[in-house]
Amino acid sequence: MVVGAFPMAKLLYLGIRQVSKPLANRIKEGARRSEFFKTYICLPPAQLYHWAEMRAKMRIMGFSAHAVKPLNEDAAAELGAELLGEATVFVVAGGCLVLEYWRHQAQRRRKERERRAAWSAMRDEVGHLALALEALQDRVQAAPTASALEELQAQMREVRAQLGARDPPSTPQATPKE
After folding, report:
1. pTM for this prediction
2. Rounded to an integer, what distance in angstroms lies between the CA atom of residue 84 and that of residue 21?
3. How far is the CA of 100 from the CAs of 1, 86, 106, 172, in angstroms?
4. By CB neighbour count within 10 A (0-12 exposed, 13-18 middle, 19+ buried), where does 125 fall?
């Protein structure tokens, strides 16, 4: 099942990306048109990204990168809008993952509660059956044994013999139920 999870995760990621892409494009267009949005929201992350990228590239090539020239305003606004669009896609995908995690945890807690309730019901049923078994054992012990029944039958024959009654044919008598 693990092998099947990776293509599903990739498909889910692509689906989320396709759904959130129009939202990201709309945000990018708003960033390009609005001077406030461009100045305070797009330009600072774009310049920071450019500065970090250029310093990393210069260090990899072996140069010292003390002073990195900032991007011009148009390029920075475009880069900032792209970063904002990608951040939007990332936030939407992350939100979906968090919601799926919460849903999975809620489902796990619900199953755990059901399992505990079933366990408790079984424990109660076992207790009820133990009490019923104990009551049946008490009834069996209180019931006359076969030798006691034979003794009673012998006493009845004696009483009948004394009264002059003849003995009825011996048939098994049903014991009265309590």
Report:
1. 0.55
2. 11
3. 18, 21, 10, 73
4. exposed
